[in-house]
Specification:
The complex is a heterodimer of chains A (365) and B (300). Helices cover 26% and strands 33% of the residues of chain A. Chain A has 365 residues and is of the alpha+beta class. In chain A, strands 6-7-8-3-9-10 form a six-stranded mixed sheet, sandwiched between helices. Chain A has a five-stranded antiparallel sheet with strand order 13-12-11-14-20. In chain A, helix 2 crosses helix 3 and helix 2 packs parallel to helix 4. The longest helix of chain A is centred in the middle third of the chain and has 18 residues. Chain A is elongated. Chain B has 300 residues and is an all-alpha fold. Chain B has a single domain, classed as MetI-like fold. Chain B is flat, with a radius of gyration of 25 Å. The relative contact order of chain B is 0.13. The chains are: A alpha+beta (365), B mainly alpha (300).
């Protein structure tokens, strides 16, 4: 159990490239923190700096109040699960799990007891004599977790632990990791580029891009109140629709004017828009596909033609070409729309996100 | 099973034979001509009294072997062979690995250093042995000049029976180091960096990581080098011929050198081939032992 604090942490390589740009992050005891972002956003580098596998160029890192910038990885009392598992190929599952205890010179019977406990909790009892080469991806993953658990570390770091598994196994292991977190009740820091993993596992999500933190929040807030266009687009599948609109005033009310129609604005948003002096200006509007719906020609915000219709069983994804570009609709109505079919769309006004086209920051949160 | 079925099975087994032979023969013919036939012939000759010069010989049964096993020179050569083999094997492997560990890190001049260390391997042994005879000269040889520079007395490198074997081993190890180093370099580069990171997080010191991660990861290379270096040492001839001719007083006479002397100086080809057969048996036995022991420490 540990509290981890990152103060203006920067990672700059010899060639001058900054992978992480002065990030600040507070991770409380027992939190499950997810670092998420596209590849190259600095999430893995951040994790590796916390582990001590990567030097910190600037800033301070504290674990449980102690500054650990110059503390060797082995003295940070942190366990890590690697993307490629990094199991010792010449050791059996038993030896892999027992290795850290063996180094600490824990008595043999104690090691044996703990290895068996851990193996039982991960369903590895029958595999203890095997070598990693004889295991499936999922089993390797479990051994890697076993190796981390047995040390009872202050914090678990996981670097894209599920990315080498197939979709079905990934789903299973996700549930197992969530279960593990409940049982161990300790700090988890988890790196992924998969937003489903981020949303389902994390108690706190850190969205990163180009070495900077974009937003830190819980999954619900991140989904409902993205602070900028990047976060709005990154979280949620299918991704949020973005289109340009102008704020216009008619009869004392504000509207978002698109090429095909007008969208009313809720009272709360109207206040924000007036306060920010946005009337008459262009904005970027975001709406999630599940908040787009069919309407009639008279009331619609968009007119368009169906391009692709994907039936997913209980719902359907419809890709529609409009004057504002491609709009995606996620609808519970699974009636098939033919390619080229004319369609009229409106949006749920209270679910609109409005962004400053220059800074891309939200205007209405 | 009916006869028809048996026939069909028989036919099935052999109807691919022409195709198999077509692919296998090109490899098999040189093997038969240059290896299997000469070996069979040598084994046959070891039961004869052929003198290498005349076309006639008599079959003498096991007499060559009995004579050989009664010959004190054989035991001296056997001991010399073992000393030479072990004396070259361990330093080649250990120093080769140390060099590879130093050179696996990238630094300026790394490539040139690798080339210099590897170059003895691609130079003919006879040529380097001649150069070493100059180096080892008691008067004016570089080796003794260096000893004098550091205030030590000159040394009889290849002229004394007590030091000749050491000198031959020194030359052989120097020649093979680069070869071992190149193989180790490639093996070291293939060890995944993540293993060391996992080791560091598990609390392993650098030494621990070396013994628990590096050594097991490169064990197939160590195994390969052990076999190759051993076989090379058992077959060493050039450097002994140039540096010491088996002397002084037989102190550097190995089994292969004894074979040469028996066959081509004493014209006793029967006894010489008996030595060769013993060498094959020793080589095969040692390799077999290594393979058996290797199952315990080599991880693929």
């Amino acid at each position: 159990m540990a509290e981890i604090i990152l103060k203006s942490i920067t990672k700059e390589y010899e060639n001058g490239f900054q992978a992480v740009k002065g990030i600040n992050l507070e991770i409380k005891d027992n939190e499950f923190v997810i670092l998420v972002g596209p590849s190259g956003c600095g999430k893995s580098t951040t994790l590796r700096m916390i582990a001590g596998l990567e030097d910190i160029s600037d800033g301070e890192l504290f674990i449980d109040g102690e500054k650990v910038n110059d503390v060797a990885p082995q003295n940070r009392d942190i366990a890590m699960v690697f993307q490629n598992y990094a199991l010792y190929p010449h050791m059996t599952v038993y030896q892999n799990i027992a290795y850290s205890l063996k180094i600490k010179k824990v008595p043999k019977d104690e090691i044996d007891k703990r290895v068996k406990e851990v193996a039982a909790s991960l369903g590895l009892e029958d595999l203890l004599d095997r070598r990693p080469g004889q295991l499936s991806g999922g089993q390797k993953q479990r051994v890697a977790m076993g190796r981390a658990i047995i040390r009872k570390p202050k914090a678990f770091l996981m670097d894209e632990p599920l990315s080498n598994l197939d979709a079905k196994l990934r789903g299973q292991m996700r549930v197992e990791i969530a279960d593990l977190y409940q049982r161990l009740n300790t700090t988890f820091i988890y790196v992924t580029h998969d937003q489903t993993e981020a949303m389902t596992l994390g108690t706190k999500i850190v969205v990163m891009k180009d070495g900077e933190i974009q937003q830190i929040d819980n999954p619900t807030n991140l989904f409902n109140y993205p602070e900028n266009k990047f976060v709005a687009g990154f979280i949620g599948t299918p991704t949020m629709n973005f289109f340009d609109a102008t704020i216009v005033e008619e009869n004392g009310n504000l509207y978002l004017e698109t090429q095909d129609g007008k969208i009313t604005v809720t009272e709360a948003k109207e206040t924000k828009l007036r306060e920010g002096n946005w009337v008459g200006k262009k904005v970027v509007v975001g709406i999630r596909p599940e908040h787009v719906m069919l309407d009639d020609e008279a009331h619609c915000a968009f007119k368009g033609e169906v391009n692709v219709f994907e039936l997913l069983g209980s719902n359907a994804i419809v890709y529609i070409d409009t004057a504002e570009g491609r709009i995606v609709m996620n609808t519970p109505h699974v009636k098939k729309h033919e390619h080229g079919e004319k369609i009229y769309l409106s949006v749920l006004e209270e679910k609109l996100h409005i962004f400053d086209p220059e800074t891309e920051r939200t205007i209405t949160n | 099973m009916s006869t028809k079925k048996v026939k069909r099975k028989y036919k099935k087994r052999y109807d691919k034979l022409p195709t198999v032979l077509f692919f296998v023969l090109p490899a098999l013919i040189p093997l038969i001509v240059f290896w299997i036939y000469p070996i069979s012939r040598s084994i046959w000759l070891s039961f004869t009294n052929w003198d290498f010069m005349t076309p006639n010989y008599k079959i003498v049964g096991l007499r060559n072997y009995i004579n050989l096993f009664k010959d004190i020179r054989f035991y001296e050569a056997l001991t010399n062979t073992l000393i030479f083999t072990l004396g070259t094997l361990f330093p080649t492997i250990i120093i080769g690995l140390i060099l590879a560990l130093l050179l696996v890190k990238n630094f300026r001049g790394n490539g040139i250093l690798k080339f210099i260390l590897f170059s003895p391997w691609i130079t003919p042994t006879v040529a380097i042995s001649i150069v070493w005879t100059w180096i080892f000269k008691v008067d004016g040889g570089i080796a003794n000049k260096i000893l004098q520079l550091v205030g030590m007395a000159p040394y009889s490198w290849i002229d004394k029976s007590s030091s000749a074997m050491f000198s031959v081993i020194l030359v052989t190890v120097w020649k093979s180091l680069g070869y071992a180093m190149i193989f180790y370099l490639s093996a070291l580069e293939k060890v995944p960096g993540e293993l060391y990171e996992a080791g560091a997080l598990d609390g392993a010191s650098s030494w621990r990581q070396f013994f628990d991660i590096t050594l097991p990861s490169i064990s197939p290379t160590t195994f390969f080098l052990t076999i190759i270096t051993m076989v090379n040492s058992l077959q060493a001839y050039d450097q002994i011929q140039v540096l010491t001719q088996g002397g002084p007083a037989g102190s550097t006479k190995t089994l292969l050198y004894m074979y040469y002397q028996l066959g081509f100086q004493e014209f006793n080809m029967g006894k010489a081939t008996a030595v060769a057969v013993v060498m094959i048996i020793i080589t095969a036995t040692l390799s077999l032992i290594q393979f058996k022991v290797g199952e315990k420490w080599v991880y693929y």
